[in-house]
């Protein structure tokens, strides 16, 4: 293992400020590949706006010395930690250098050798220069190199979805490696101002929102990077990735995970996201009823619930429920990942009692949306609907959802009062043909649990 600490060189070369030609010469002395590697990586940046101000702040002798001392302290104890992950001392370079805002840590290849590049300008900008933060940063990047040396770090033929799986996979493996090396499964250097507690509390929503974006092929960039944030918290993807890999480790070894192909990872993430979905909680919360996911295969068992709610369908559709209405209700769920959309049938003593459709993480990640709730006419006016929904509300808020939303027509003379009695408030009215569609919401902080 080769260690390069170029801090003294940085101070002498840039004593009078940053100069790109001096930097190219300085970087070239570390490696002939380094100048072009950094400049190619930074092509998308506005140098004067994005890079130069960071460099000017970083070129401070006291700040450089602070990072250098802590870097050396970490390096002095590194070999003892590496034996927890590597069978022999790894043949890698670790270089503390001045980059062009290429990242505080960068696991890469330089001169044909696996290398950890530590950009002092980003370390200073992010205030990661303490010994604790330097330790975490170095171990994390070594985790990436372990992955590269022992498996498949990169997924081929990247699409937007494959890239999102790859990023979660890479950072998750690196975080697990970091935890192994430092001996603390709950260590995250991001854990400031309650960051980790927030992540654990909102784990369900984080999982489901990431799955939703995979399904819709939307960007997941706000889960990664100190310059981005998800719900006001940066680097949430590192927590999520780690939890995903920990989930896989219940079945596979870390080396087996490091060699997984995309198809298995993609399926594994779906299973992981489903692991603590609200459906699992609800399934265990009702002793009075048997609950099952309703499908086209078992639809016949529950059809009478739809047909017996003739008044509702005349109000909303202008005619009593038909077989196609029942099918369309179930088929609508195919528009969303299965972990998000639930069509639930409730039965008691072999008799169908209720139908409930729920959409998790819609329209916002921390929101549960009630699509349709019907009670079989034989069981109406027996407080069954109230008991079911009170349990759903309790479980949803306990799982971390901050609000529950739904929509009801104002001419639904039994539906609107029912939701109002449960505490839902009308937040918006939209005029339709001869009636108003009322958007209603129940917020967690407005309910005493």
Descriptive key words:
Aminopeptidase; 17% strand; four-stranded mixed beta sheet; single chain; seven-stranded mixed beta sheet; 449 residues
Give me the secondary-structure topology.
Elements: E1 2-5, H1 7-13, H2 20-30, H3 34-41, H4 47-58, H5 61-76, H6 78-82, E2 93-97, E3 105-110, E4 113-119, H7 120-125, H8 131-150, H9 160-182, H10 195-201, H11 203-216, H12 236-248, H13 254-258, H14 262-274, H15 278-283, E5 290-293, H16 299-308, H17 310-317, H18 323-331, E6 341-348, E7 351-360, E8 367-375, H19 384-398, E9 403-409, H20 415-421, E10 425-431, E11 436-443
Parallel strand pairs: 1-2, 2-4, 8-9
Antiparallel strand pairs: 3-4, 5-6, 6-7, 7-8, 9-11, 10-11
Please give the number of β-strands: 11
What's the domain count?
2
Low-pLDDT windows of residues: none
Strand percentage: 15-25%
Shape field: elongated
Strands of the biggest beta sheet: in what spatial order? 5-6-7-8-9-11-10
Q: Give the % helix.
A: 40-55%
Task: Round the mean pLDDT to the nearest integer and report it.
Answer: 91
Describe this protein's structure.
The protein is α/β, with parallel strands linked by helices. The chain has two domains: 2-274, no CATH class; 278-446, Gcn5-related N-acetyltransferase (GNAT) (Aminopeptidase). It contains 20 helices and eleven strands. It has helices spanning 7-13, 20-30, 34-41, 47-58, 61-76, 78-82, 120-125, 131-150, 160-182, 195-201, 203-216, 236-248, 254-258, 262-274, 278-283, 299-308, 310-317, 323-331, 384-398, 415-421; strands at 2-5, 93-97, 105-110, 113-119, 290-293, 341-348, 351-360, 367-375, 403-409, 425-431, 436-443. The strands form two sheets. The protein has a seven-stranded mixed β-sheet, sandwiched between helices. It has a four-stranded mixed β-sheet with strand order 1-2-4-3. Helix 5 crosses helix 8, helix 9 packs across helix 14 and helix 11 (203-216) packs across helix 14. The model has no long low-confidence stretch (mean pLDDT 91).
